[in-house]
Design brief:
- The protein is mostly helical and 131 residues long.
- It is built from five helices and two strands; from the N terminus they run ααβαβαα.
- The chain is globular, with a radius of gyration of 19 Å.
- The mean pLDDT is 88.
Length: 131
């Protein structure tokens, strides 16, 4: 079986979601799952230590073009996720995607359409999309 489309996943979530059909329940579970993603990343740093965070001010030298500036920006992440942390974070991201899909279902929003529109916006605005 291949990877399901976003619509297939959204349909599956709709069939499975029984307990949290209230919009308020789904909103709170979505927030909770997002916090769990953040917590699992933090634990990869503070508990496991497989990755380290070396955050500093992002500086740009004058006169750089956009491509050169993009290459100078740092992620602040040093190291790689170990197998265990990668699995935990992936699981939390999956749960987060589940509740995002549930929210889309309750509000009659198609996730494929959301991704399509966001992709178009990224293509149109390029590097200025999230500034």
């Amino acid at each position: 079986m291949g990877t399901p489309s976003l619509q297939d996943f959204q349909d599956q979530v709709s069939e499975l979601l029984l307990r949290h059909r209230s919009l308020l329940d789904v909103l709170s579970k979505n927030g909770q799952s997002s916090a769990s993603v953040n917590r699992s990343v933090a634990k990869a740093i503070t508990d496991c230590g497989c990755i380290e965070l070396h955050a500093t001010k992002q500086t740009f030298a004058p006169g750089l073009d956009l491509e050169e500036a993009k290459e100078t920006v740092r992620t602040h992440v040093h190291g790689e996720l170990c197998e265990n942390c990668r699995e935990v974070i992936s699981t939390e991201l999956g749960r987060n995607l589940f509740y995002m899909s549930a929210l889309c279902n309750l509000l009659d929003i198609n996730m494929d359409e959301v991704v399509r529109k966001e992709s178009q916006k990224c293509s149109t605005l390029g590097l200025f999309n999230m500034s």
